[in-house]
Amino acid sequence: MVAFEALFREFGPRIRAYLLKLTRDGQAAEDLMQETMLAIWRKAGQFDPARGQASAWVFTIARNIWIDAWRKQKRPAFDPDDPALAPAPQADAPDLLEQKQSGQALHEALKTLPAEQIELIRLSFFDEASHSTIAARLGLPIGTVKSRIRLAFGRLRAALEEMK
């Protein structure tokens, strides 16, 4: 215990001043200084005088403890009530029925389109292929692909309106 007291008297005030400069908070500097002194005491067997001076080793430990504390501060606290973590609400019966009817209406409206336009819509929206990929795959200019997709959408929209 005498050795720890001597270590504390020697390095405690210097470490506290160093941490005060880093934290700009007296209480935080005091807490981190005490944490540093405990870490030094626990890791004393790891000190190698051949690798450098004891003070450099001590202040490296202090700096690492400060960095750890700073990182913990910057990390947001886990909030189990955060709406982003809540599961998506389950659709109720009327919503499920509406989704099913909308899906059926879309399938029926797609049947009214020519096969070429159905293929373009499938590639673009269901396979999520880019317009340039579709153009390369079908051997068409990109402008033609874009205009045919726009035309297919217009016909699809009209077919869905007729079904209402």
Automatic annotation (TrEMBL):
Entry-linked InterPro entries: RNA_pol_sigma-70-like (IPR039425), RNA_pol_sigma-70_dom (IPR014284), RNA_pol_sigma70_r2 (IPR007627), RNA_pol_sigma70_r4 (IPR007630), RNA_pol_sigma_r2 (IPR013325), RNA_pol_sigma_r3/r4-like (IPR013324), WH-like_DNA-bd_sf (IPR036388)
Keywords in alphabetical order: DNA-binding, Sigma factor, Transcription, Transcription regulation
Membership in a protein family: Belongs to the sigma-70 factor family. ECF subfamily.
Pfam families, per the entry: Sigma70_r2, Sigma70_r4
Protein name: Sigma-70 family RNA polymerase sigma factor
NCBIfam families recorded: sigma70-ECF
CDD domains reported for this sequence: Sigma70_r4
Matching PANTHER family: RNA POLYMERASE ECF-TYPE SIGMA FACTO, RNA POLYMERASE SIGMA FACTOR SIGZ
RNA polymerase sigma-70 region domain ranges (all copies): 7-75, 109-158
